[in-house]
Amino acid sequence: MKGSKSSSKVKDQTPSSWSAEKSAQLYGIQEWGVNYFNISEQGEVITTVESNGKKVSVPLIKIVEGMKERGLDMPTVLRIENLLDQRIKALNDAFASAIKNADYKNHYRGVFPIKVNQQCHVIKEIARYGSHYHHGLEAGSKAELIIALSQLQNHESLIICNGYKDAAFVDLGLYARQMGIPCFFVLETPAELPIILARSKALEIEPLIGVRLKLASMVEGHWNEDSGDRSIFGLSTNALLTVIEQLKQANMLHCLQMLHSHLGSQIPNIRNIRSGVLEACQFYRGLIAEGAPMGYLDLGGGLAVDYEGSQSNSTHSMNYQLDEYCINIVETIQECFDPLGISHPVIVTESGRALVAYSSMLLFNILDVRDHKPGLLPESLPEGSHDLLQNLFSVLKTVKLNNIQECYNDSIYYRDEVRELFHRGQATLRERALAENINLAILDRIAELLPEAKRISHELEDLPELLSDIYYGNFSLFQSLPDIWALDQIFPVMPIHRLNEEPTRDAVIADMTCDCDGKIDHFSSPEGTVNTLKLHPLREHEEYYLGVFLVGAYQETLGDLHNLFGDTNVVSVHINEDGSFEFVREFHGDSIADVLSYVEYEPKEMQEQFRRIAERAVREGKITVAMRQKMLLAFRENLQGSTYFER
Ligand SMILES: *Cc1c(COP(=O)(O)O)cnc(C)c1O
């Protein structure tokens, strides 16, 4: 702490019992952060990465300062390139070691599903760094195949084409084959096969074919629609037989070399993974028996991320480690195939989330706080106050541990009665305000007593949340964290500095859209999911920064333009072995003109229309010419400016 700029300030406000250590426990950073995130003695979130084989730690707040110097305002998505590389390495190393230890007689090939994060810089880095491991790409559409074909330089890396494929898609994939790129067409439906066969014949290029199977194994968790009979993807067993027949008739069964199954994303329970692999193995065996050569077993995605840090089989967690995942897959295949004398296939997985989640975080500042503390109350009520107010006031004087429920009921009752009077014009604005204020004071006292209460009702349980502060964050949930809104996803959220001060406020976080859905009010904690997050009181003239972590998967392209908040700034940082860092890529987010043009406004025309309005005002003597100029400038500057709050 010595020498740090704010040490004296921090000292005043820090009860000696608080520490960075306690913050670490409170926010669970060591559990969800794996070894990538932690808190320094200075109370700052640090990221620890490998750079040229050396471990280095950098405080995120330092990177934020670097952004500020470069004119990059909040909110910003920060990508740490080293973390992406480390995840690619971890996955490939874990499979390599499971394969070596089990004496498995084939290798692993990972493919990254582009849909999980399509951002150019992410894909380029996966292609560049992943080429050491022949890490390939999975494409679910023509656009994604075009990305894969242009970015992968290593011809041992696989390209897996899922999704519905038209003739143009198929042609592109066949040309890749001709150039020696291992590009598989995975059949989602039997209807795709005739197109593939026809184009293959026309171009005289043989395809590599895979079949995507609907597994009956069901999966717990959020995204389980991908598995089971009702899955909308994949071939039923019957459809598979049709495909085999058609291939045989076309004399192309030798092209069928891959079995593909995808149980779903974020599979929290290792048991489900094991049973899914086992079922896939049985299909694989069945296809061999039908005379297909096979050779590749693609197990799809599903490798989870422990967003909660609870290491459990809850939806947002996982009850296994990466090593265990790989060992389970390798061993299940061996156990199934060895007794049958089936040679070990190349193991393919399509891990998306587990590869990219860690490397991105959303950083934003807090603009304002609204607390629900009661205002100052008088010692006693004025003579002649309404009976209802008198009653309410006497409830306030009687709140005790043994009557909290009764006081709660009375308080709400009297407050509502006063509101009713107000409705009918029989109470004044001031009387209503006083009633609401006394009620708040009562609820506040009850909330203070709650931790000591033995049994509490549901209404009282919700009280701390109702009374919590609202921290207004400079971001849009719909743009930057769509899964929180759409899927009730939980991401770790915490301040990135001031962590050796005790956070004393209970808060929910609202975004800038002022939409009731635009808030974060579910947080993971050591006690499970809670509805409020502990935060620090704001300090005047000082920014307070929060980070939402593990957001590298699925968040960046699903976002929408709710209230026309556009893309945030995005910064990619590479950390060097001496702890310095470079901004390897900066993307300045949408301007207001950008988002307006997305919904088909013409910013030029809008300026012209505003100019005309201003000109008329000049003519009518409402403003001077000089004022007109000022207003036009403000209009133009706003168009070019950020959609978010600018300081
Ligand atoms: C979405 C998807 C994936 C990625 O799943 P993760 O759980 O993110 O690893 C893999 N394969 C297919 C076919 C997918 O649709």
Give me the secondary-structure topology.
Elements: H1 7-13, H2 20-27, H3 29-32, E1 37-39, E2 45-51, E3 54-59, H4 60-69, E4 76-80, H5 81-101, E5 108-113, H6 120-130, E6 136-139, H7 142-151, E7 159-161, H8 167-178, E8 183-187, H9 192-203, E9 208-212, H10 237-249, E10 256-260, H11 270-289, E11 296-298, H12 322-337, E12 346-349, H13 353-356, E13 360-370, H14 387-398, H15 404-423, H16 429-449, H17 458-461, H18 463-466, E14 469-473, H19 477-480, H20 482-487, E15 493-495, E16 505-510, E17 519-520, E18 523-525, E19 528-530, E20 533-535, E21 545-548, E22 569-575, E23 581-587, H21 592-598, H22 603-619, H23 625-640
Parallel strand pairs: 4-22, 5-6, 5-12, 6-7, 7-8, 8-9, 9-10, 10-11, 11-12, 14-16
Antiparallel strand pairs: 1-2, 2-3, 4-13, 13-14, 13-21, 15-21, 16-17, 16-20, 18-19, 22-23
Helix pairs in contact: 5-6, 5-12, 7-8, 8-9, 11-12, 14-15, 14-16, 15-16, 22-23
The protein binds pyridoxal-5'-phosphate.
Low-confidence stretches: 1-12
> Looking at CATH, which topology of the largest domain would you report?
TIM Barrel
Termini gap: 29 Å
* CATH first level of the largest domain: Alpha Beta
The secondary structure category is alpha/beta
Gyration radius, rounded: 30 Å
- Into which percentage range does the β-strand content fall? 15-25%
Q: Please count the helical segments.
A: 23
What ligands are attached or bound here? pyridoxal-5'-phosphate
What's the CATH architecture of the largest domain? Alpha-Beta Barrel
Cofactor: pyridoxal 5'-phosphate; Mg(2+)
Enzyme class: lyase
EC number: 4.1.1.19
Domain Arginine decarboxylase helical bundle: 383-463
